[in-house]
Protein backbone atom coordinates (compact mmCIF):
# COMPACT_ATOMS: atom_id res chain seq x y z
CA UNK A 1 0.00 0.00 0.00
CA UNK A 2 1.39 3.46 -0.87
CA UNK A 3 2.52 5.54 2.07
CA UNK A 4 -0.06 8.29 1.47
CA UNK A 5 -2.90 5.69 1.38
CA UNK A 6 -1.62 4.06 4.58
CA UNK A 7 -1.52 7.49 6.24
CA UNK A 8 -5.18 8.11 5.28
CA UNK A 9 -6.25 4.75 6.75
CA UNK A 10 -4.40 5.41 10.02
CA UNK A 11 -5.87 8.91 10.27
CA UNK A 12 -9.39 7.58 9.71
CA UNK A 13 -8.85 4.85 12.31
CA UNK A 14 -7.62 7.30 14.95
CA UNK A 15 -10.59 9.58 14.22
CA UNK A 16 -13.03 6.67 14.55
CA UNK A 17 -11.51 5.58 17.86
CA UNK A 18 -11.66 9.15 19.12
CA UNK A 19 -15.29 9.47 18.11
CA UNK A 20 -16.13 6.18 19.84
CA UNK A 21 -14.36 7.27 23.02
CA UNK A 22 -16.15 10.62 22.93
CA UNK A 23 -19.45 8.82 22.43
CA UNK A 24 -18.80 6.55 25.41
CA UNK A 25 -17.84 9.53 27.56
CA UNK A 26 -20.96 11.39 26.47
CA UNK A 27 -23.15 8.37 27.16
CA UNK A 28 -21.65 8.01 30.62
CA UNK A 29 -22.18 11.68 31.33
CA UNK A 30 -25.85 11.39 30.37
CA UNK A 31 -26.50 8.01 32.04
CA UNK A 32 -29.41 7.84 34.46
CA UNK A 33 -28.03 8.60 37.93
CA UNK A 34 -28.52 5.98 40.63
CA UNK A 35 -31.39 6.45 43.04
CA UNK A 36 -30.93 7.99 46.48
CA UNK A 37 -32.73 5.30 48.46
CA UNK A 38 -33.66 5.39 52.15
CA UNK A 39 -35.03 2.31 53.90
CA UNK A 40 -37.23 2.80 56.96
CA UNK A 41 -39.22 0.41 59.11
CA UNK A 42 -39.29 -2.38 61.65
CA UNK A 43 -37.77 -5.84 61.93
CA UNK A 44 -39.42 -7.09 58.74
CA UNK A 45 -37.58 -4.28 56.92
CA UNK A 46 -34.41 -4.75 58.96
CA UNK A 47 -34.32 -8.49 58.30
CA UNK A 48 -33.83 -9.15 62.01
CA UNK A 49 -32.56 -12.68 62.47
CA UNK A 50 -31.05 -12.96 58.99
CA UNK A 51 -27.27 -13.24 58.76
CA UNK A 52 -24.98 -11.41 58.31
CA UNK A 53 -25.78 -8.81 60.94
CA UNK A 54 -24.99 -5.14 60.34
CA UNK A 55 -22.32 -4.52 62.97
CA UNK A 56 -22.67 -0.72 62.78
CA UNK A 57 -25.80 -0.85 64.96
CA UNK A 58 -26.38 -4.00 66.99
CA UNK A 59 -29.34 -2.48 68.85
CA UNK A 60 -31.43 -2.57 65.70
CA UNK A 61 -30.51 -6.16 64.78
CA UNK A 62 -30.32 -5.15 61.13
CA UNK A 63 -29.19 -7.55 58.43
CA UNK A 64 -27.04 -6.67 55.43
CA UNK A 65 -29.12 -9.21 53.50
CA UNK A 66 -32.47 -7.53 54.19
CA UNK A 67 -34.81 -6.55 51.39
CA UNK A 68 -33.48 -2.95 51.20
CA UNK A 69 -29.97 -4.26 50.54
CA UNK A 70 -31.27 -6.68 47.90
CA UNK A 71 -33.09 -3.81 46.16
CA UNK A 72 -30.03 -1.56 46.32
CA UNK A 73 -27.67 -4.29 45.08
CA UNK A 74 -30.00 -5.08 42.18
CA UNK A 75 -30.73 -1.51 41.10
CA UNK A 76 -27.42 0.14 41.97
CA UNK A 77 -29.23 2.58 44.26
CA UNK A 78 -27.33 4.47 46.96
CA UNK A 79 -28.84 3.02 50.12
CA UNK A 80 -29.18 4.61 53.54
CA UNK A 81 -30.64 1.91 55.76
CA UNK A 82 -32.11 3.09 59.07
CA UNK A 83 -34.47 0.16 59.59
CA UNK A 84 -34.60 -1.08 63.16
CA UNK A 85 -36.02 -4.15 64.84
CA UNK A 86 -38.96 -3.45 67.19
CA UNK A 87 -39.60 -0.04 65.61
CA UNK A 88 -43.08 1.42 65.89
CA UNK A 89 -44.65 4.20 63.86
CA UNK A 90 -43.67 6.62 66.65
CA UNK A 91 -40.01 5.96 65.90
CA UNK A 92 -40.30 7.64 62.54
CA UNK A 93 -40.34 10.95 64.43
CA UNK A 94 -38.92 9.97 67.83
CA UNK A 95 -35.65 8.32 68.82
CA UNK A 96 -36.05 4.60 69.40
CA UNK A 97 -32.85 4.22 71.43
CA UNK A 98 -30.25 6.68 72.71
CA UNK A 99 -28.02 7.45 69.75
CA UNK A 100 -30.58 6.15 67.24
CA UNK A 101 -32.13 9.16 65.52
CA UNK A 102 -35.78 9.33 64.40
CA UNK A 103 -35.97 7.44 61.14
CA UNK A 104 -37.30 10.31 59.02
CA UNK A 105 -34.15 12.28 59.84
CA UNK A 106 -32.48 10.19 57.13
CA UNK A 107 -34.76 11.72 54.49
CA UNK A 108 -34.14 14.85 52.45
CA UNK A 109 -35.74 16.65 49.54
CA UNK A 110 -33.22 14.82 47.34
CA UNK A 111 -34.37 11.34 48.38
CA UNK A 112 -35.69 9.45 45.33
CA UNK A 113 -37.00 6.23 46.84
CA UNK A 114 -38.29 5.20 50.26
CA UNK A 115 -39.44 1.74 51.34
CA UNK A 116 -40.88 0.75 54.70
CA UNK A 117 -42.69 -1.94 56.63
CA UNK A 118 -44.28 -0.61 59.81
CA UNK A 119 -47.30 -1.01 62.07
CA UNK A 120 -46.95 -4.56 63.37
CA UNK A 121 -45.28 -3.42 66.60
CA UNK A 122 -47.82 -0.72 67.41
CA UNK A 123 -49.90 -1.91 70.37
CA UNK A 124 -47.48 -4.90 70.31
CA UNK A 125 -50.02 -6.45 67.92
CA UNK A 126 -47.80 -9.18 66.49
CA UNK A 127 -46.01 -10.24 69.64
CA UNK A 128 -49.11 -10.11 71.83
CA UNK A 129 -51.25 -12.04 69.38
CA UNK A 130 -48.61 -14.71 68.72
CA UNK A 131 -47.77 -15.07 72.42
CA UNK A 132 -51.40 -15.16 73.55
CA UNK A 133 -52.50 -17.60 70.88
CA UNK A 134 -49.39 -19.76 71.24
CA UNK A 135 -49.87 -20.11 75.00
CA UNK A 136 -53.58 -20.83 74.59
CA UNK A 137 -52.82 -23.37 71.88
CA UNK A 138 -50.41 -25.31 74.06
CA UNK A 139 -52.86 -25.39 76.98
CA UNK A 140 -55.72 -26.53 74.76
CA UNK A 141 -53.67 -29.20 73.02
CA UNK A 142 -54.36 -27.49 69.73
CA UNK A 143 -58.11 -27.83 69.90
CA UNK A 144 -60.81 -25.19 69.63
CA UNK A 145 -60.23 -21.45 69.42
CA UNK A 146 -59.20 -20.46 72.96
CA UNK A 147 -57.38 -17.31 71.85
CA UNK A 148 -60.31 -16.00 69.84
CA UNK A 149 -62.70 -16.94 72.64
CA UNK A 150 -60.69 -14.91 75.13
CA UNK A 151 -59.57 -11.91 73.09
CA UNK A 152 -62.34 -11.56 70.55
CA UNK A 153 -62.03 -8.32 68.58
CA UNK A 154 -59.56 -6.65 70.96
CA UNK A 155 -56.59 -6.85 68.55
CA UNK A 156 -58.69 -5.55 65.66
CA UNK A 157 -60.11 -2.77 67.82
CA UNK A 158 -56.60 -1.57 68.70
CA UNK A 159 -55.57 -1.64 65.04
CA UNK A 160 -58.51 0.58 64.10
CA UNK A 161 -58.30 2.92 67.06
CA UNK A 162 -54.54 3.32 67.34
CA UNK A 163 -52.51 1.76 64.52
CA UNK A 164 -54.43 3.24 61.59
CA UNK A 165 -54.16 6.92 62.64
CA UNK A 166 -50.53 6.38 63.70
CA UNK A 167 -49.74 4.92 60.28
CA UNK A 168 -51.25 7.93 58.53
CA UNK A 169 -49.21 10.31 60.68
CA UNK A 170 -46.03 8.31 60.06
CA UNK A 171 -46.54 8.29 56.29
CA UNK A 172 -47.32 12.00 56.28
CA UNK A 173 -44.04 12.63 58.09
CA UNK A 174 -42.22 10.68 55.37
CA UNK A 175 -43.93 12.66 52.61
CA UNK A 176 -43.09 15.95 54.34
CA UNK A 177 -39.39 15.13 54.65
CA UNK A 178 -39.04 13.57 51.20
CA UNK A 179 -41.61 15.37 49.01
CA UNK A 180 -40.00 14.26 45.75
CA UNK A 181 -39.55 10.61 46.62
CA UNK A 182 -41.51 7.60 45.53
CA UNK A 183 -42.62 5.94 48.76
CA UNK A 184 -43.60 2.29 49.06
CA UNK A 185 -45.27 0.78 52.13
CA UNK A 186 -44.99 -3.00 52.16
CA UNK A 187 -47.61 -5.28 53.63
CA UNK A 188 -46.61 -8.22 55.81
CA UNK A 189 -46.27 -11.66 54.16
CA UNK A 190 -48.52 -14.37 55.58
CA UNK A 191 -47.37 -15.84 58.88
CA UNK A 192 -50.00 -18.57 59.11
CA UNK A 193 -51.77 -20.66 56.48
CA UNK A 194 -55.45 -20.06 55.76
CA UNK A 195 -56.45 -23.09 57.83
CA UNK A 196 -54.83 -25.27 60.46
CA UNK A 197 -52.16 -27.78 59.47
CA UNK A 198 -51.92 -30.46 62.20
CA UNK A 199 -48.35 -31.27 61.17
CA UNK A 200 -47.35 -27.67 61.94
CA UNK A 201 -48.50 -27.59 65.56
CA UNK A 202 -45.04 -28.46 66.92
CA UNK A 203 -43.52 -25.49 65.07
CA UNK A 204 -46.43 -23.07 65.43
CA UNK A 205 -48.48 -24.20 68.44
CA UNK A 206 -51.69 -22.39 67.55
CA UNK A 207 -55.04 -24.08 68.17
CA UNK A 208 -56.88 -25.13 65.02
CA UNK A 209 -59.61 -22.51 65.41
CA UNK A 210 -57.11 -19.77 66.14
CA UNK A 211 -55.06 -20.21 62.95
CA UNK A 212 -57.67 -18.41 60.81
CA UNK A 213 -58.24 -15.98 63.68
CA UNK A 214 -54.57 -14.90 63.62
CA UNK A 215 -54.63 -14.69 59.84
CA UNK A 216 -57.67 -12.41 59.97
CA UNK A 217 -55.85 -10.10 62.38
CA UNK A 218 -52.87 -9.93 60.03
CA UNK A 219 -55.16 -9.29 57.05
CA UNK A 220 -56.79 -6.46 58.99
CA UNK A 221 -53.41 -4.91 59.77
CA UNK A 222 -52.38 -5.11 56.13
CA UNK A 223 -55.69 -3.54 55.12
CA UNK A 224 -55.11 -0.48 57.30
CA UNK A 225 -51.53 -0.16 55.98
CA UNK A 226 -53.01 -0.17 52.47
CA UNK A 227 -55.70 2.35 53.43
CA UNK A 228 -53.20 4.71 55.09
CA UNK A 229 -50.92 4.41 52.05
CA UNK A 230 -53.69 5.27 49.60
CA UNK A 231 -54.74 8.27 51.67
CA UNK A 232 -51.21 9.70 51.80
CA UNK A 233 -50.14 9.13 48.20
CA UNK A 234 -47.91 6.15 49.01
CA UNK A 235 -47.63 2.98 46.91
CA UNK A 236 -48.84 -0.11 48.74
CA UNK A 237 -47.00 -3.38 48.02
CA UNK A 238 -49.44 -6.22 48.54
CA UNK A 239 -48.08 -9.65 49.51
CA UNK A 240 -51.41 -11.40 50.07
CA UNK A 241 -51.19 -13.40 46.84
CA UNK A 242 -47.46 -13.83 46.27
CA UNK A 243 -46.76 -15.01 49.83
CA UNK A 244 -49.57 -17.57 49.82
CA UNK A 245 -48.05 -21.00 50.45
CA UNK A 246 -44.88 -19.52 51.94
CA UNK A 247 -46.04 -19.17 55.55
CA UNK A 248 -44.26 -20.42 58.67
CA UNK A 249 -45.77 -23.89 58.35
CA UNK A 250 -44.04 -24.63 55.05
CA UNK A 251 -40.78 -26.53 54.63
CA UNK A 252 -37.32 -25.00 54.54
CA UNK A 253 -36.70 -23.58 51.09
CA UNK A 254 -40.39 -22.81 50.61
CA UNK A 255 -41.32 -20.78 53.65
CA UNK A 256 -40.52 -17.07 53.79
CA UNK A 257 -41.36 -16.79 57.50
CA UNK A 258 -39.68 -18.83 60.21
CA UNK A 259 -41.91 -20.66 62.73
CA UNK A 260 -42.13 -19.96 66.43
CA UNK A 261 -40.26 -23.17 67.34
CA UNK A 262 -37.61 -25.30 65.61
CA UNK A 263 -36.87 -22.67 62.99
CA UNK A 264 -33.57 -21.70 61.41
CA UNK A 265 -33.39 -18.04 62.36
CA UNK A 266 -32.23 -16.06 65.38
CA UNK A 267 -35.63 -14.34 65.49
CA UNK A 268 -38.75 -16.51 65.15
CA UNK A 269 -41.90 -15.52 63.25
CA UNK A 270 -39.87 -13.23 60.98
CA UNK A 271 -38.76 -13.44 57.36
CA UNK A 272 -35.75 -15.60 56.58
CA UNK A 273 -33.20 -14.77 53.89
CA UNK A 274 -35.46 -16.22 51.18
CA UNK A 275 -38.38 -14.16 52.45
CA UNK A 276 -36.35 -10.95 52.42
CA UNK A 277 -35.19 -11.68 48.88
CA UNK A 278 -38.72 -12.39 47.66
CA UNK A 279 -40.01 -9.24 49.36
CA UNK A 280 -37.37 -7.27 47.49
CA UNK A 281 -38.21 -8.90 44.16
CA UNK A 282 -41.93 -8.26 44.46
CA UNK A 283 -41.38 -4.68 45.58
CA UNK A 284 -39.13 -4.00 42.59
CA UNK A 285 -41.75 -5.51 40.30
CA UNK A 286 -44.51 -3.30 41.73
CA UNK A 287 -42.31 -0.21 41.47
CA UNK A 288 -41.11 -1.06 37.97
CA UNK A 289 -37.49 -1.36 39.08
CA UNK A 290 -36.89 -4.85 37.73
In short:
42% of the residues lie in helices and 7% in strands. The chain has 290 residues and is α/β, with parallel strands linked by helices. It has a five-stranded parallel β-sheet with strand order 2-1-3-4-5, with helices on both faces.
Report on this structure:
Helix content is 42%, strand content 7%. Strand 4, helix 7 (210-231) and strand 5 form a beta-alpha-beta unit. Residues 1-7 and 9-31 have low confidence and may be disordered. Helix 3 (67-75) crosses helix 8 and helix 6 (154-177) packs parallel to helix 7 (210-231). The chain is α/β, with parallel strands linked by helices. Strands 2-1-3-4-5 form a five-stranded parallel β-sheet, with helices on both faces. It contains eight helices and five strands, in the order αβααββαααβαβα. The protein starts with a helix and ends with a helix.
- Principal-axes geometry comes out as globular
Determine the strand fraction and express it as a percent band.
Answer: 5-15%
Low-confidence stretches: 1-7, 9-31
Task: Report the strand count.
Answer: 5
- What does the average pLDDT come to? 91
Q: Termini, distance in Å?
A: 53 Å
Largest beta sheet, briefly? 5 strands, parallel
**Sheet with the most strands: spatial strand order:** 2-1-3-4-5
- What is the succession of H and E elements? HEHHEEHHHEHEH
The helix fraction, in percent, is: 40-55%
Structure class = alpha/beta
Count of separate DSSP helical elements? 8
As a whole number of angstroms, the C-alpha radius of gyration is 24 Å
How would you name the oligomeric state of the polypeptide chains in this document? Answer: single chain
Amino acid sequence: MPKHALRRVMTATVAAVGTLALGLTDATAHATPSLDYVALGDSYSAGSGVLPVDLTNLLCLRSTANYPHVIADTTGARLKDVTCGAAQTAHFTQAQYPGVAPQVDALTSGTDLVTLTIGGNDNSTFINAITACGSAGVLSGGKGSPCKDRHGTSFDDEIDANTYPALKNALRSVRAKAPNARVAALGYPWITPASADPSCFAKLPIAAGDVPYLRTIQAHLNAVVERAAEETGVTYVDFSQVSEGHDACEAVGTRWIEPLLFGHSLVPVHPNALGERRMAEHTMKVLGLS
